[in-house]
From TrEMBL, chains A, B:
Native species: Acetitomaculum ruminis DSM 5522
InterPro entries given in the database record: NIF_FeS_clus_asmbl_NifU-like (IPR017787), NIF_FeS_clus_asmbl_NifU_N (IPR002871)
Record-level Gene Ontology MF annotations: iron ion binding; iron-sulfur cluster binding
Any GO BP annotation: iron-sulfur cluster assembly
Every NIF system FeS cluster assembly NifU N-terminal domain range: 1-122
This protein's name: Nitrogen fixation protein NifU
Alphabetized Pfam families for the sequence: NifU_N
Automatic annotation (TrEMBL), chains C, D:
Catalytically driven reaction(s): (sulfur carrier)-H + L-cysteine = (sulfur carrier)-SH + L-alanine
Organism listed in the record: Acetitomaculum ruminis DSM 5522
Assembly notes: Homodimer. Forms a heterotetramer with IscU, interacts with other sulfur acceptors.
Keyword set, alphabetical order: 2Fe-2S, Cytoplasm, Iron, Iron-sulfur, Metal-binding, Pyridoxal phosphate, Transferase
Enzyme Commission code(s) on record: 2.8.1.7
Family membership: Belongs to the class-V pyridoxal-phosphate-dependent aminotransferase family. NifS/IscS subfamily.
Task of the protein: Master enzyme that delivers sulfur to a number of partners involved in Fe-S cluster assembly, tRNA modification or cofactor biosynthesis. Catalyzes the removal of elemental sulfur atoms from cysteine to produce alanine. Functions as a sulfur delivery protein for Fe-S cluster synthesis onto IscU, an Fe-S scaffold assembly protein, as well as other S acceptor proteins.
Key word Iron-sulfur present: yes
Name of the protein in its database record: Cysteine desulfurase IscS
Organismal lineage: Bacteria, Bacillati, Bacillota, Clostridia, Lachnospirales
PROSITE patterns named among the record's database cross-references: AA_TRANSFER_CLASS_5
Amino acid sequence: MYSEKVMDHFNNPRNVGEIEDASGVGTVGNAKCGDIMRMYLKIDDNGVIQEAKFKTFGCGAAVATSSISTEMVTGKTIQEALEVTNKAVMEALDGLPPVKVHCSLLAEEAIHAALWDYAEKNGIKIEGLEKPKADISEGEEEEDY
Amino acid sequence: MYSEKVMDHFNNPRNVGEIEDASGVGTVGNAKCGDIMRMYLKIDDNGVIQEAKFKTFGCGAAVATSSISTEMVTGKTIQEALEVTNKAVMEALDGLPPVKVHCSLLAEEAIHAALWDYAEKNGIKIEGLEKPKADISEGEEEEDY
Amino acid sequence: MNKLIYLDNAATTRLKSEVFDVMKPYFCEKYGNPSSIYSFADDSKAAVDKARNQIADLIGAKDNEIYFTAGGSESDNWALKATAEAYKSKGNHIITTKIEHHAILHTCQWLERQGYEVTYLDVDENGLVKLDELKKAIKPTTILISIMAANNEIGTVEPLAQIGKIAKENKILFHTDAVQAFGHININVDEMNIDMLSASGHKIHGPKGVGIMYIRKGVKIGSFVHGGAQERKRRAGTHNVPSIVGMGQAAQIAKENLEEYTKNVSKLRDHLIERIENEIPYSKLNGDRKNRLPNNVNFCFRFIEGESMLILLDNKGICGSSGSACTSGSLDPSHVLLAIGLPHEIAHGSLRLTLSDETTLEEVDYTVDELKKIISRLRSMSPLYEDFIAKEA
Amino acid sequence: MNKLIYLDNAATTRLKSEVFDVMKPYFCEKYGNPSSIYSFADDSKAAVDKARNQIADLIGAKDNEIYFTAGGSESDNWALKATAEAYKSKGNHIITTKIEHHAILHTCQWLERQGYEVTYLDVDENGLVKLDELKKAIKPTTILISIMAANNEIGTVEPLAQIGKIAKENKILFHTDAVQAFGHININVDEMNIDMLSASGHKIHGPKGVGIMYIRKGVKIGSFVHGGAQERKRRAGTHNVPSIVGMGQAAQIAKENLEEYTKNVSKLRDHLIERIENEIPYSKLNGDRKNRLPNNVNFCFRFIEGESMLILLDNKGICGSSGSACTSGSLDPSHVLLAIGLPHEIAHGSLRLTLSDETTLEEVDYTVDELKKIISRLRSMSPLYEDFIAKEA
Ligand SMILES: Cc1ncc(COP(=O)(O)O)c(C=O)c1O
Ligand SMILES: Cc1ncc(COP(=O)(O)O)c(C=O)c1O
């Protein structure tokens, strides 16, 4: 069901854990739906993401998207990190099954939530970043089985 | 589907043919329903059936019941022949499949029709013998498949 | 016992050993449920996908338009009942023919009891649907035309492309019961404008108890068997993996062999027809001579009844079938033979012999030789023949 | 890859080689259609009769009360839809439970759309139907009570005899979906007053794609699959002889082994339950401890999600299943786990392990050993666990 990339990131997740003195932390999803993603970002004075870590409660795709998105944002500026969309995450994982697309949305939201937290803590406004929704909505109609 | 007895009478039918100077001939059934039985009886002056022959258009059970009933009536008096009922025919054949019970009725009717013809020709009345129906009715609801 | 001469391939076919070999691993080894997520089930999943593709290929469909069922009857029930339900707001009228299989006819009768209106089209004396009558039967309330691709008794192949065209022009869904045609003649769902198609595995040397329904993308019917989320949520029930695999393989073989099959088997068929017509008097070929399944031979022999013929053939090791009342388990002979205009007494004397690519010329010749003897024997004990000869004399 | 440890026997089972051996001749050799009249079909006919008898024997039914179908889902659809249709004049109310399989639930929802009224009974925290609520739910219009014999997820065995008694006292038909119970626990249709019963071949080491419906003599339901005259005119479709033979054989083996199976497998089950309860914290057994299928183990592990558990088990060659949303293909976790009162987040962390008589103690122990590691690994990356520990501290 999953691509090799997904399985690799699920079995050997990169950057699991917490960052004690994180610049921003974002938690998205909810336990009711079976997916919670928490992302920790360490951002330096130049607005470059030095380190990203995550903890995730969720399925294989949720763990894999968390893992790869921590890799994808590391070393990027905040503006570049905003371009790590769910599409980009999916592509980097060589695709996700249709029923799992929402996991990649979750990853995008987790990055945004962590950045929002960072912006709030620092009293700044990040262009193009909206306040993260409290919950991830599920619009996709399952096309496949 | 058929008992060995039925198969024997179908494969080696006894008394197939016509009797040129028959004392009575009876034809029952109709081609529409797929069964026609014609019975020829030769009856002596003492009212004993000397010979019985048949021709049948119909299924295996129709042929077998015709065959065995010619055997069963031979040597019998008219009154005894009236006791060759469909039940007796069925028993003599070790049973028939439920959907084929009407064939044994046809045999009973063929005997009756031939006797009726004999009675008419000789201007006598045979006690217990009713005018045969022109056709064999089919009341049985199929219980088995 | 004699060697078996199996000439009832319209009833069911021998599972080909090549097909069985492909099915085998899925019984005791790769038995995983394709809906499961562990990798042990990957083989089962891939096998079902492959079979879907093999079947789609045979009829020019897309893979995701093929749905696995338990056989032709279920597919027919599904097509009719679910279309009736889904398109109820559009209308309540269905058009079919008088010569459909009971899986269609009895389902239509059931629908009539639910308030639907069904037109049963007449056919001509060869069993062909009359296209002008089809056109005339269409009403504003018509939601479905269901006409079989080829008849199971008399082998007549219906003009699918023309029916499909009429359906399309009138924006009516077109379902075809292709149980006898699938893998036996060329069918292309796009070229023929077929919206739904039923087929069954065991009529093409595949396994029994598995079938498919083709449903064109966009046709909005729901489920017939409700339950689990299998088959894109349209047909519930744990996948019957070995049989699905077998049906896929049989479809692929049928596709590869279609040209050769058509050539060889219809040659044998024509030989059989010719010998019977030349050598057995008072016989009549049923079904269309030209638009005919490659493997179907169906005759009526006057003055005799089908079941006795079958039993005597059976004594010689020959398997055939008949439309006589006795073998149909009802009091009337085959509705198909009546629909092409045969009187009851003629219809009772029908014999269907259906060949396969495993049938040999020797078998066919032996069958005719035996059949000749059987028919004259039965005629000699038939009161109808006695009367006929008496009249002729 | 590791050795396969198959603990998903509630999803499907391995076809037993003894069963396959009995099926084998019916594929390529004795392939005749049992409805045919020639003697070549006698073997097929006899084989179907024998299977019918083997199955009747397992549940104390008469042979002619057993009808072959394509599986549990079809039987469930048949029972509900045909009863609703046949007893419409008596009433339109059906009683079932919230923990039925989707083959029942989705069929009930379909019936609701057709104007029927359905009561979905609550169950207690162990999944047991509350008999007083069942009694209270009965109305003058109630025509059917359909309650499963044993639940497929949590293994709870329902009080069939008591339900049957209530149904009988109220002159209401009683159907039970026994797909998980058939061959796994003792069922007697007369003692339990069961009028209809669904079962499936592949849950008892028989073949996939075949099932049965038991219909008590006198129950007047019609067909679900309309068509040919098979199965006493009640279920159309060419008989799937090899699979029918296989289901019969599997039923006979199940009957012969039932005592030993119950003893051995429930001992393994209890060992598995005990080790998990003792060695894995924050775990909770789902389902009734006493009224439980011999082969069912179902736990919730807090703070983690089922699918990840399954994938990591799969990496170790262990096949299990989960009621998490991710594996059900919907957004909600198993309706069964919710019905026994579990909150969503707990239900997402469920794991079902279902054993068979082929499961060994070594396999069970290996599974627990690996499971422990997997659960602590997943907890270590769970934000829920992080929060929980933080709160505890
Ligand atoms: C309780 C129950 N009912 C019905 C079914 C459906 O059976 P099948 O998949 O054989 O159609 C299953 C199996 O998935 C089941 O566990
Ligand atoms: C034309 C036609 N339709 C439907 C069916 C039913 O197929 P099955 O017996 O596989 O359900 C048959 C076969 O008997 C058939 O010949």
